[in-house]
Amino acid sequence: MARGPVKHLKRRFAPSHWMLDKLKGRWAPKPSAGPHKLRECMPLIVMLRERLKYALTYREVKMIVMQRLIKVDGKVRTDMFFPAGFMDVVQIEQTKENFRLLYDTKGKFV
């Protein structure tokens, strides 16, 4: 029997506002426990790899995050599954860019 929380998330059951491809793989990154709910957040790995295109692979995202280059609301985050949610500011140190997570009219992150 399984014990503890479920640590996997199939891509098919991932929130639609992450806009992941259906056929790109079987699994989707599951956000860690944090300040936002699963359905109201976006993990940093999805943001850096799928949305901002700063990395192509899981390994590249891990390198970026472990170099302490990503801040969420002014605090360095080394967990690539950290749930960034509505009105959070994601700062990237080396490029001096700031991104705020907002919804569009359809409820998807802008």
List key phrases describing it.
15% helix; 4-stranded antiparallel β-sheet; 110 residues; alpha+beta; two-stranded antiparallel sheet; single chain
Overview of this protein structure:
The model has no long low-confidence stretch (mean pLDDT about 95). Strand 2 (about 70) and strand 3 form a beta hairpin. About 15% of the residues lie in helices and about 15% in strands. It is globular. A four-stranded antiparallel sheet has the order 3-2-5-6, with no helix packed on it. Strands 1-4 form a two-stranded antiparallel ribbon. The chain is built from two helices and six strands; from the N terminus they run E-H-H-E-E-E-E-E. It has about 110 residues and is α+β, with helices and mostly antiparallel strands.
Topology (elements, then pairings):
Elements: E1 41-43, H1 44-51, H2 58-66, E2 70-72, E3 75-76, E4 83-85, E5 89-92, E6 97-100
Antiparallel strand pairs: 1-4, 2-3, 2-5, 5-6
What's this model, at a glance?
The protein is of the alpha+beta class and 110 residues long. The chain has two helices and six strands; from the N terminus they run βααβββββ.
